[in-house]
């Protein structure tokens, strides 16, 4: 079944996602979210809307970009998967953004290359980088593919070492950072230590970093937490000096279903964590 899905996506991706790529789909999103841009939202997740994403990230990014203005139309997507169900796909397809998709899975990137094969004809520069991202190589990778240019959006979703990769990044200062956190860690300020074991494929529970740990890291790097998707696991950061209100860890963890997913204290006692 997986082989069939891969074949269809790689060879017929543009047909499969023709609805998402249609200009009418972009207009639907813009019309739905335009009224939200006139005033601050109670929660960033109120701007949720999906074109290519799963849990409202497209709409939230659209809202933030409308609020911030003059954000450079470039992205970096670390842990991009197939580059279609991506936090940055909507930016590339409907807004003509250039950028780089980075993933260690060659087959997944092959789907992306096929999907975006006509981008260069439209003057959109899309790069695909097959690499296992580490704290040691991330700056070199970014230096090659961003060449010192300003970055609009940085998305990090690698199911584990996300905290440590963002901490290591020095060569770009994106206007918006979208990064995955581990909501099951609740209100604690901790991260699984950096390393091979910090990955969802190694242990579905013991990986990642908490929202509070991410919030503190963002502050160290000059960012404030603007909010998250409704489920709380995808966090959005903006620069400290922008006018967008700052969110709290508690506000991000307000969804009852998210709260019910918190791990018991016995889990934390049984594992080693870096306290942030």
List key phrases describing it:
276 residues; seven-stranded mixed β-sheet; two-stranded antiparallel sheet
Share of helical residues: 25-40%
Structural class per helix/strand content? alpha/beta
Biggest beta sheet summary? 7 strands, mixed
Q: How many distinct helices?
A: 12
**Could you spell the SSE succession in H and E letters?**
HHHHEHEHEHEHEEHEEHHHE
Rg over alpha carbons: 18 Å
In round numbers, the mean pLDDT is 92
Number of strands: 9
Strands ordered across the widest β-sheet: 3-2-1-4-5-8-7
Strand content: 5-15%
Query: Rough shape?
Result: globular
Termini gap: 42 Å
The low-confidence runs, each spanning 5 or more residues with pLDDT under 50, are: none
What's the short version?
By secondary structure, the chain is an alpha/beta fold. The chain has 12 helices and 9 strands.
Give an overview in words:
Helices cover 36% and strands 15% of the residues. It has twelve helices and nine strands. It has helices at residues 2-16, 18-21, 23-34, 57-68, 89-95, 106-115, 138-146, 162-168, 211-220, 249-252, 256-259, 265-269; strands at 74-78, 98-103, 126-130, 153-156, 176-180, 190-191, 223-228, 234-239, 274-275. Strands 3-2-1-4-5-8-7 form a seven-stranded mixed β-sheet, with helices on both faces. A two-stranded antiparallel ribbon has the order 6-9. Helix 1 packs parallel to helix 6 (106-115). The chain is globular.
């Amino acid at each position: 079944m997986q082989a069939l899905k891969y074949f269809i996506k790689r060879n017929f991706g543009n047909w499969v996602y023709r609805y998402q790529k249609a200009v009418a789909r972009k207009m639907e999103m813009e019309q739905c979210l335009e009224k939200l841009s006139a005033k601050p939202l109670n929660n960033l997740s109120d701007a949720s809307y999906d074109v290519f994403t799963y849990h409202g990230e497209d709409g939230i990014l659209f809202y933030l970009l409308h609020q911030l203005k003059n954000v450079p139309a470039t992205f970096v997507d670390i842990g991009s998967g197939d580059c279609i169900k991506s936090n940055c796909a909507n930016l590339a397809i409907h807004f003509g953004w250039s950028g780089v998709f980075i993933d260690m899975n060659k087959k997944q990137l092959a789907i992306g290359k096929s999907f975006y094969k006509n981008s260069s004809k439209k003057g959109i520069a899309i790069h695909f980088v097959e690499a296992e991202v580490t704290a040691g190589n991330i700056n070199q990778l970014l230096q090659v593919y961003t060449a010192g240019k300003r970055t609009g959006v940085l998305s990090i979703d690698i199911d584990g070492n996300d905290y440590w990769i963002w901490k290591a990044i020095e060569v770009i200062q994106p206007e918006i950072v979208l990064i995955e956190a581990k909501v099951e860690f609740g209100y604690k300020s901790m991260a699984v230590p950096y390393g091979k074991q910090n990955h969802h494929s190694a242990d579905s529970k013991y990986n990642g970093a908490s929202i509070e740990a991410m919030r503190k890291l963002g502050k160290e790097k000059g960012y404030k937490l603007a909010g998250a998707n409704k489920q709380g696991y995808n966090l959005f950061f903006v620069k400290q000096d922008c006018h967008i209100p700052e969110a709290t860890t508690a506000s991000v963890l307000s969804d009852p279903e998210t709260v019910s997913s918190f791990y018991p204290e016995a889990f934390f006692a049984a594992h080693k964590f870096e306290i942030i």
